[in-house]
Design brief:
It is a multi-pass membrane protein. This protein is about 75% helix and about 0% strand. The chain is mostly helical. Strands 1-2 form a two-stranded antiparallel ribbon. It is globular and about 50 Å long. The model has no long low-confidence stretch (mean pLDDT about 80).
Length: about 180
């Protein structure tokens, strides 16, 4: 049982870290005591730290490859290629978060929620890479696309961003419905 938990601990950690980042951003961005500080850099560094800790947890779980090969009723399958892809994904996510700092500085974009929206699709991709069943892959893709709908419409004052988000939602709902109902 402990080996099973270690095999999925990176996914569990990144989910919990994302929720803690969201709570941290909401509490401190609405705090009158702290004079409503812009938390983009603070939440960004914490998000980068959570991705790197997830990478370490994934590397620590790699020796359990032979023990936890199949788990959760064949929904997920781990092998060396899935670990390589997950490590590559986490490194690219860390690079994306580090590139966001310069972009936010140039755009004067003070929304800490945007940084929180980067680890959420990463969690879904971490679940999609070892997916061995079509249901598990479908659920991971849907969890990922929900985050991308919000990212597409993240600039609240831009008409183009709102239009892009609503079009993306509508165009994503039709294939999902067709895939589910045939």
């Amino acid at each position: 049982m402990f080996n099973l938990f270690l095999a999925v601990s990176p996914e569990i950690f990144i989910i919990n870290a994302t929720f803690i980042l969201l709570i941290h951003g909401v509490v401190f961005s609405t705090s009158k005591k702290d004079d409503y500080p812009p938390l983009v850099s603070n939440v960004g560094w914490l998000g980068l730290l959570s991705v790197l800790i997830t990478l370490l947890l994934l590397a620590a779980g790699a020796p359990l490859l032979t023990i936890a090969h199949l788990f959760w009723n064949n929904f997920f399958r781990r092998d060396n290629f899935t670990y390589f892809c997950q490590i590559l994904l986490l490194l690219s996510t860390a690079g994306t978060i580090s590139m966001c700092f310069d972009s936010f500085e140039k755009e004067r974009f003070d929304a800490s929620e945007f940084i929180v929206l980067i680890p959420l699709p990463t969690r879904s991709m971490l679940l999609m890479i070892p997916a061995h069943d079509l249901i598990a892959m479908y659920l991971a893709i849907e969890l990922q696309s929900l985050c991308f709908y919000v990212i597409a419409a993240s600039k609240r004052k831009s008409e183009f961003s709102t239009e892009a988000g609503s079009k993306y939602l509508i165009l994503g709902a039709f294939p999902s419905g067709i895939l589910l109902f045939g």
